[in-house]
Amino acid sequence: MPLTPSKQLCERYCEVFSNLSPETLDQFKDLVTEQVHFRDPFNDVRGFSKMRRVLEDMFENTENPAFNVLEQSVYTDHAWLRWQFTAKVPIIGLLSVEGATRLEFDHYNGLVTEHIDYWDSAPVYLRLPLIGGLLRLIKRRMSAS
Q: Where in this chain does the record put each SnoaL-like domain (predicted)?
């Protein structure tokens, strides 16, 4: 059975996402609209150049960042990706986070118009030297277990 345009686009996007490196960042340019909306817990930008800058920053501030796409669910106008991110982060050490991305499609141009990441940034904050201790204390006091 042939892949739908949405499934083809999602497959290509996942391939670039899973093999991301500073040298492959521009491969997204052929997959997203010029005014793509990119959002994660730390950034909310519009435009390919700004999305690219966010990803460049990730490579500049972490060692060996990698996304492993674990599953994808593709619909007519959007898709969901579940992934595992790993990287060595200064001060924090090895970081491993599971998250999800919602991709929105523009069928007229066959491109991604929106990349919205959903993941819990608490593991990052909890491991910071000063604020992490305070946050761990608050977490223990709020925990039901």
A: 12-115
